[in-house]
Amino acid sequence: MRSFHIITALATLFFISPALSQQCNGHSELCSRPYHQIAFAGTHNSYSAVKGNPAANQNFPISTQLNDGIRSFMLDGHKPPVGSGVQLCHTSCLLENAGNAVTVLKTIADFLGANPNEVITIIWENAGNLDANTYNTAYQQAGLDKFAYTQPTGQQQWPSLSELISKGKTLINFIDTGASPSVPWLHDEFTYVIDTPFTTTDPNAWKCVVDRPQGGSPANIGLYNINHFLYGALGNSNVEIPQPGSASSTNGPNLEQHAQQCTKAFGRIPNYVSVDFYDQGSQGVNIISVVAELNNVTYTPKPLALVMVGLL
């Protein structure tokens, strides 16, 4: 009889252990939380890592960002200089052309296929006024559309990470203009997401107010993004460019304070914390540590972007 109880106990442990050990976006604590109650480390102009270009916003490509824990990606969709499709460009394809979007989308598709417990968000700026079906075609060509989750229209309560993962729908997509019922998973951004100001030039003047949509209210819109990146003038011109030289201080305690400020102002943690030069930080603080703090999960310090410099 005693052996029967032992066997039963072992069997019970065997069957419940996978649930206990499941991790969602790297932490078991996040599995049961709704998507709208989680913070995600994000990059602004995520594709913009063209070496030597003063308009570049990142030091490393999206493949490295994924490996480092970035889970929210801001992409700009333009019309290609030649042909059709979606081109990744910064302001203009003449200023910075990062190539066809399918390449980046396939990188994300491959990552999601190899990491089924990770949930990722893509936020599109539809700079080229492309129609939703053009984006749909690019996703299909990349094999990414199968991961796309469709939220019921206007519903501000989102599934938990474990629910998204169990359905294999681990990609959330938004677009600022051009959303269409014909591509229901490409959600209208400002129906669901509030954006803070994004043209900051003073590192001591971060704001936690609604910039977009005009008249948007945190009481009615369930997600919000804080933009935490600096611009500065190019020489004596009026052209504003990213500021890599100050990124370590911008993405250190300054970022932590901005996130805390917005948490207080909005009454809840930000969902997306978007930065330039994500690999930079200071005083033991960076985008990954700040997001871990917001989510109240353990942060394990590690150097970022080691793969790219040949140290791993």
From TrEMBL:
<keyword id="KW-0732">Signal</keyword>
<feature type="signal peptide">
    <location>
        <begin position="1"/>
        <end position="21"/>
    </location>
</feature>
<protein>
    <submittedName>
        <fullName>6697_t:CDS:1</fullName>
    </submittedName>
</protein>
<dbReference type="Pfam" id="PF26146">
    <property type="entry name" value="PI-PLC_X"/>
</dbReference>
<dbReference type="GO" id="GO:0008081">
    <property type="term" value="F:phosphoric diester hydrolase activity"/>
</dbReference>
<dbReference type="InterPro" id="IPR051057">
    <property type="entry name" value="PI-PLC_domain"/>
</dbReference>
<dbReference type="InterPro" id="IPR017946">
    <property type="entry name" value="PLC-like_Pdiesterase_TIM-brl"/>
</dbReference>
<dbReference type="GO" id="GO:0006629">
    <property type="term" value="P:lipid metabolic process"/>
</dbReference>
